Amino acid sequence: MIGSYSGSLYIIAGEASGDKLGSCVLDNLKEVEASGVGGPLMEARGFHSLFDIREIAVGGILETIHCITRIKMLIRKTVEDIIRRKPRAVLTIDSPEFCFRVTKQVRAAAPEIKLIHLVAPSVWAWRPKRGKAIAEVYDHMMTLFDFEPQYFTKYGLRTTFVGHPAVEEFCGSSDSKESILLLMPGSRVQEIKAHLPIFLEAARGIEADRVVIPTTGSMRQLVKSMVPDDHIEVISDEVEKRELYRNAKLAVVASGTATLHLALSSCPMVVCYRMSPLSYMILKPLVNVKFISLVNLILDVEVVPELIQSACTPASIIDAAGNINNACQSVSFQEIKSRLLPNDISPSRMIATTVEQYLV
After folding, report:
1. What's the CATH number of domain 9-163+341-356, 3.90.1150.30, 3.40.190.10, 3.40.50.2000, 3.40.50.720?
2. CA–CA separation, 194 vs 74, rounded Å?
3. Using one digit for the tens of pLDDT, what is the confidence trace for 37-81?
4. Can you give the pTM of this predicted structure?
5. Which CATH number fits domain 170-339: 2.60.120.580, 3.40.50.720, 3.40.190.10, 3.40.50.2000?
6. Looking at residue 122, what is its pLDDT?
7. Which residues contact 82 (CB under 8 A, 6 or more apart)?
8. Which of 19, 146, 274, 354 is the most exposed place for a label (fewest CB within 10 A)?
């Protein structure tokens, strides 16, 4: 614990990456009274979630439309729970489409409740006007990357670059890589269904002694049901994952936070992403970035190959895997850590200190 608190905290963490960050908050604010929405990592710390976060872990426009009625019901349920509990502050983590709808209603109904958000939405990539709308609702924004605060401070929103907690957990590489191929299709149901069959087919053409699929505990059964080969391992243990990242010779990974975990562990990778054709058709003209992977975005150069949409095929993955420049990736990955630390202060401590000021 950092200090003493006179008010409770409501946390909303809507998917696996948010659950991980939420668990860091709980670890550093051990004596705070916390409630809200979270996943298995937060629940392992005694947190009781209002509902299963898989219900809102939806990706893509078309996929969200199919679930809109249920999501609206969960938004209403969450807002009602917040108003009933009257916390001192609400901390929303990632999942902007869900979180921002909740906090907008909370701001209107209970303006005395402080609103904080962790993980800035990608306003630098698309829909830049969201920065102004967010500033009108929130009291504080915490960003994971050093280039993001400017997109919110210009609208008067108090913003702190806190760094990325992944640097505290994933670090360094083993001296000699083992013949291990990692298949990492994503943390959402739609991502797994879109990527895993392609990754499994590609794995047949990539030489490796072991093929392992690291996943989350909540997605383990889905992944296992899609894996026909008993020789392909499915693991969800966090400690085992970290060891695999350090030792594996290659990862085929869906674009997302996992690419940072791999880079910090110096694991060579091929980055892929597929969504429904309609979602891609709608989103592509709106996105204003050269790359989709966080590694390439941070370094502003294509260090890891990116295979997007129709380019994401078993044959193209096999080809990209065979042409990876391991030495180039390894050197570039060294820079990632320095870009994710604010003045060498622990990101988890930075996050906790920022939240704490709204609880005393």
Report:
1. 3.40.50.2000
2. 25
3. 999 999 999 999 999 988 876 555 555 555 788 889 999 999 999
4. 0.81
5. 3.40.50.2000
6. 87
7. 10, 36, 90, 102, 106, 110, 113
8. 146
